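User: Hi! I'm working on a homework problem where we have to compare a predicted structure to a textbook description. Could you give me the structure for the chain below?
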Amino acid sequence: MGITAPIVVVTDLDGTLLDHDTYDPGPAAAKVAALTAAGVPVVCCSAKTRAEQQVHRAELGLTGRFVIENGAAVHDDDGPVHVLGLAYDDVRDRLAQAAAALGVTLRGFGDMDVAEVVQRTSLAPEAAARARARDHTEPFVVVGGDADEEALRAALGDVDLGLQRGARFWTAGGHHDKGAAVTVLRELFTIDYGARPLIYGLGDTHNDVAMLAAVDIAMLVQRPDGSWADLDVDNLTHVDGAGPAGWARAADSILTTVNAP
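Assistant: Happy to help. Predicted structure tokens:
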């Protein structure tokens, strides 16, 4: 027998639904369309900003809810429906306080123009502008002085900020994560359906741990080198295929469940 609970798919973007290098969904695009046609919401849950995600969602034909800036807020097509993070200016002010306490210079996206973001990220100018359009979190680099992760985390903690580490930048923000956003999504979809949904989660790396731990069925796609990230998540399904190729394979599995008699 098929599963009778309503199904929701929550997915990371970079390196998962989108190719790590090209940001192209490739074979996953058709599977997104198949899921939505089957009545399964596909919810993007990413570190990307609202402006960045709107472009990708439009390309994929997605509407409805999505999660921005590592769980800082749940949006729908009309705007934010649940905010978990701090306001961007508040984050910037607190980050400046932490920098002063450390005696270092921290350069955030708010200090950079589009050209500098392009230089640091290799994004196209229009994409860099969307990455700068932030609501709740601030990526930054240490450009003056020296501070290791322990010192940064302690100084940010003193001003009640959390710290996340990425490939190119540190990111400061409130105490939120993708897992907390999944909890909010579950509550919202339960109201919609009048029943608790079965939530699938798809990710590729350590930044997805909280999300994958919060969903009902967690699926991990391969990284570009063919390996899987070593994540401490119970009952994690490892899917063959890097990024969108693995996503497409995972979607086929979900569709089989949806279409089961």
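For your comparison, note the following. The chain has a mean pLDDT of 95. The chain has two domains: 7-84+177-259, 88-173. Good luck with the assignment!
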